[in-house]
Amino acid sequence: MAGLWLYLRRRVDGVADDAVAVPYGSNGKTIFIVFAVVSLVEAGLLWLIDFGLVADLLLLVLGVYSVLLIFGIYAGTVVRPHVISSRELRVRYSSFYDVRIPRENVVSLRNLKESHEPAKTRAFRDGTWLSHDNYYETNLVAELREPITVTRPLGRTESVRVVKFTADDPEAAVEAYERLAVS
User: Fold this and answer.
1) Hey, which of 6, 21, 63, 73 would disulfide with 79, CB 3.0 to 4.6 Å?
2) What are the pLDDT digits (tens) for 1-41?
3) Distance (Å, rounded) from C-alpha 123 to C-alpha 107?
4) What keywords are assigned to this protein (predicted)?
């Protein structure tokens, strides 16, 4: 809900003056709208069935909450972009995770479009961490000098040496990374 609040106030979270925001959520907008419409239709259909006043009100509240939650997750992808600065590279997905990688630890950031099988994206394999990808695709790869420990959305931690993630404009992200190089 914090993401929805920031979205309505047209604010962006965690982007300092000397940093560049790297958006990543534009491809998912349609899916979030479809989920919200389906959730509204479901709430409306359940309202037509007479479960009793208390159950009907509870189902209505749950339907409205689910729509707000869906829009909140989408809003979080807009107001919490990836961030590139002279100090760090931040890879984020809404409010689910925020991985900070010091610039001194980043060997390279390059544009490389890759498709990943669903089974492979769920697993942390060969020292690679796949960020939230859009439709099983990533288009940026950050190679690290030293492995970092990342916390997955459900709390488990993994040590990784390569971070793959998605940006709306990967060329602009690489250009910003090179422009803000550590001196």
Assistant:
1) 6
2) 888 888 888 888 888 888 999 998 887 788 888 998 998 88
3) 24
4) Membrane, Transmembrane, Transmembrane helix
pLDDT, tens digit (0-9, with 9 covering 90-100), for 39-77: 888 888 887 888 888 988 898 889 889 989 989 988 988
Q: Where are the domains of the chain?
A: 2-11+21-79, 85-179
Which pair of structure tokens corresponds to residue 51? Answer: 């479960």
What phi and psi values does residue 132 have, to the nearest 5 degrees?
-60, 115
Report angle CA 57, 58, 59 to the nearest 5 degrees: 90
**To which residue do tokens 């106030």 refer?**
9
Instruction: Give 175 or 120, the one with higher predicted confidence.
Output: 175
The two three-digit tokens of residue 18, written as one number: 């000397």
Q: Using an 8 Å Cβ cutoff, are 75 and 6 in contact?
A: yes
